[in-house]
Here is the input.
Amino acid sequence: MEDHDPLAWLGALLMSAYATLGKFMWSLPVPTGLPVPEGPDGPDAVEAITRARAALRDQPMDDITRSMIDRMCLEWLTVLDLGAVVRMAGPDPWRLEAMSYGIDRFFALAEVVGPRLEE
Here is the structure.
């Protein structure tokens, strides 16, 4: 028997990803914050990420960094949706693995975006 709930762990990582994205949004040429969500699956978080994607289009910044941040938003939304599927259809290992890979892709992009925003 496992000592932890993998979905809860992935939810915590998703909240960490949201905080990272919020930090990046404040670092943009025209700072745009993200509100503190009620939880990893709150509708306010989805709405905030959707607004962040729209706000990115008007940022005076290079297209590559803009695109990477947009992909981070998409990864976040995708992992959130997969979490909803897991809760409805069950935690099949492949679903949890797909969520984990989405989180990995998010943070891999973050490692590249962070230094680009500091330039």
